Amino acid sequence: MTLHRWTKDKKLEFPSPVKIRNKNYRSRRALEEFKERMTREAITKRADAK
Predict the structure, then answer these.
(1) pLDDT tens across 3-46, in order?
(2) Of the candidates 28, 33, 34, which has an alpha carbon nearest to the alpha carbon of residue 7?
(3) Residue 14, Cβ neighbours under 10 Å: how many?
């Protein structure tokens, strides 16, 4: 369910899927960049809260 929500939430800028034979695939590089960006934002948000 999480992937579905992240895909539908345009604000997150989650990598778009590529459909191959009715299955969704995503670029590993795009997923790693997404993970890094989300981690950076969480750290910044936490640092600002202190």
Answers:
(1) 999 999 999 999 999 999 999 999 999 999 999 999 999 999 99
(2) 34
(3) 19
